Every structure is written in structure tokens, then in C-alpha cells.
UniProtKB/TrEMBL annotation:
Keywords assigned: Membrane, Transmembrane, Transmembrane helix
InterPro entries: DUF1648 (IPR012867)
Protein name in UniProt: DUF1648 domain-containing protein
Organism: Runella slithyformis (strain ATCC 29530 / DSM 19594 / LMG 11500 / NCIMB 11436 / LSU 4)
TM regions (residue ranges): 20-38, 58-80, 111-128, 140-159
Record's keyword annotation contains Glycoprotein: no
Keyword Transferase in annotation: no
């Protein structure tokens, strides 16, 4: 592997806002889960099919896996974002394009980790509603929305990265 330039990126105001919102949503996800835990029945939905219908059930403690996984992914991606020079890029990284490529890639990770917390938060919220009889599924909209929230920006950032080489 070629030796890539190591550049310390300065966060813009928008980057800082995304980080703060991400941390606040992660904390809120834990708050939502913990405050509703005691009111959950012994058996809750643990899995949903592509149509958003519950098709797996387990003990109420399984609700804690949602904020746990979201937190591990969020923190892991936050740490990973500090090592932008080791990411896979669709182009060669040079001294001339490193700043643009690194900035684009770290913004993509920042956006994706925020979306991951939002998605896990929605799943937790809907699971709590389902378990308490206030709803009976995630909804048919959930899978397409999730795929769109992940892949549309992913495509945008990859295209932006390819254009930044010209």
C-alpha cells in the first residue's frame, strides 16, 4: 500500500453539529429504552420481516441490544474516522487531493453513523409501541426508508469522491 499523507482535519460547524446530534441521539436512545424497560411485557418483538411485521420474539431484555449495538457502531465509527488515511478510496490519494478526499470520506462516515443511530432509535421506538399494543408492526415504509437513508447518501459521497479526482 502506498504511503498516504496524514492530515489532521479541522471540523467545520456542520461537522460539529452532526457529531453533537449523533451523541444526543445516542443518549436519547438509551433514555427511551431504559425509561420504557420496566413497562415492557415479558415477551417483545425481536425481529421484523421485510414487510415490517414482527416475526421473532424474545425476552424484554433483548430491547437493550438496540442501543448497545447502535452505541458500539457509533463509537467504533467515531474512532475509525480519526484514521481517514487508511480508508479505501475509489482513487489514488495524493498530496494534492488528500484533503478533499479525506474530508469527503469523514463526512460520509459522520452522516452514516448518525443515520445508524436514527434507524436503531426508530426500531426501538416501534418495538416498544408494538410490545405495549400501541402498534403492530414497523410498517411497510421502514425497509425502503432505511435503504434510501443509507444508499442514496453513500452513492452521493462516492460520486463526489470520484469527481474530486478531476
Amino acid at each position: 500500500m502506498e504511503e498516504r499523507p496524514k492530515i489532521k482535519l479541522e471540523l467545520t460547524t456542520a461537522d460539529k453539529i452532526f457529531e453533537i446530534i449523533g451523541w444526543l441521539l445516542t443518549i436519547s436512545l438509551w433514555g427511551l429504552t431504559i425509561t420504557n424497560y420496566a413497562n415492557l411485557p415479558d415477551t417483545i418483538p425481536t425481529h421484523y420481516n421485510g414487510a415490517g411485521q414482527a416475526d421473532g420474539f424474545g425476552g424484554r431484555a433483548t430491547i437493550l441490544t438496540l442501543p448497545l449495538i447502535a452505541t458500539v457502531l457509533f463509537v467504533g465509527m467515531t474512532i475509525l474516522n480519526k484514521f481517514h488515511h487508511i480508508f479505501n478510496y475509489p482513487t489514488n490519494i495524493t498530496q494534492d487531493n488528500a484533503l478533499r478526499q479525506y474530508t469527503n470520506a469523514t463526512r460520509m462516515i459522520r452522516y452514516l453513523k448518525l443515520i445508524i443511530v436514527v434507524i436503531f432509535g426508530l426500531i426501538a421506538f416501534k418495538t416498544i409501541q408494538n410490545a405495549n399494543g400501541q402498534a403492530n408492526e414497523l410498517g411497510i415504509w421502514f425497509l425502503p426508508m432505511t435503504l434510501g437513508l443509507i444508499f442514496i447518501p453513500l452513492i452521493y459521497f462516492v460520486v463526489k469522491s470520484l469527481k474530486a479526482t478531476k
